[in-house]
Write a structure and sequence with these properties.
eight-stranded parallel beta barrel, globular, disordered N terminus, two-stranded antiparallel sheet
């Protein structure tokens, strides 16, 4: 038998590259938008992103999505919790509404077959007890997380009273088992002080991932440029290659081998200020090949 050539039979990894897509007009229009942007994965809000009142995706809507997604080659779906959600909040009403909203999103995730539900860890408003409340809320949600899906805590920019630094979300995800993981955002990392434009800055990110999180816990990457300087602690997304992260930092994120199988999702403002667009998608695809 001839000796196997190293690497000859390795299957090429299909990169999952997509964007946050509007659900206005229903799931079929959402998928059409994803197709127009040449996405093979996508992120959506499962309900109204501007208010607490919402209903989970219906079984019929989910069936239509699953059929159409398969036909159009959309291979992964990420749901993003609404921005009002704050399980770290000391306000009882906000905490309760946040829990209810996430329970609805997890039901939608089960029906749609989503791989992830991304949630911002939130703010404790300065009382220092946010991590404990967040852990309690996540423990309550664990039985609702469907098979094949993970709830991902998103690393944040380091704004005042936020509980979204890598050490905290890593500690929470490790303590809560396989159903809870982490989402990284390039703009947030940059704003939090990780200088992705420099090799040493990226090495610092690698060290902190290994120390606090573990690569196996990372389930999704948000790829965004930043309108703000490194360490600004301000969350301001910019179109790819137009901000302070720039091409070099974004290429580092895309080419980092431990991230290769993860979905990369754009949340850019768009060159017409209408959200992620084809120009940003095409840049991301060029950066992958750089």
């Amino acid at each position: 038998m001839p000796e196997a050539t190293p690497g000859k039979n390795k299957k090429k990894i299909e990169r999952l590259l997509g964007a946050h897509i509007s659900t206005a007009g229903g799931i079929r229009k959402t998928l059409k938008r994803a197709q127009e942007l040449e996405c093979n994965c996508m992120q959506i809000f499962a309900g109204n992103p501007r208010g607490w009142q919402s209903s989970p995706v219906t079984e019929s809507e989910a069936h239509a999505y699953r059929e159409a997604a398969a036909a159009l080659g959309v291979k992964a779906l990420v749901i993003h919790a609404i921005y009002l959600v704050n399980l770290a909040s000391p306000k009882i009403e906000v905490y309760a509404k946040s829990l209810a909203s996430l329970q609805r999103d997890l039901l939608s995730a089960r029906r749609l077959g989503a791989q992830s539900l991304v949630v911002h860890p939130g703010s404790d408003l300065g009382d220092g007890q946010g991590e404990a409340r967040l852990r309690k809320g996540l423990r309550t949600l664990l039985p609702n997380i469907p098979q094949g899906c993970r709830l991902l805590l998103e690393g944040m920019a380091g704004t005042k009273n936020s509980v979204g630094d890598l050490e905290t979300i890593g500690r929470l995800s490790r303590s809560l088992g396989d159903k809870v993981g982490v989402c990284l955002d390039s703009a947030h990392l940059f704003a939090a002080g990780y200088d992705l434009t420099r090799e040493k800055g990226f090495e610092k990110l690698e060290q902190d991932i290994k120390k606090y999180i573990g690569y196996q816990k990372i389930g999704c990457i948000h790829l965004n440029d930043s309108k703000q300087l490194c360490g600004s602690h301000r969350d301001r997304h910019e179109n790819l290659g137009e901000g302070f992260v720039g091409r070099a930092g974004l290429v580092r994120m895309l080419k980092h081998k431990p991230f290769a199988q993860l979905p990369f999702i754009l949340e850019t403002p768009g060159f017409n200020d209408l959200g992620p667009d084809l120009k940003n998608m095409q840049r991301m695809k060029r950066y992958v090949k750089a």
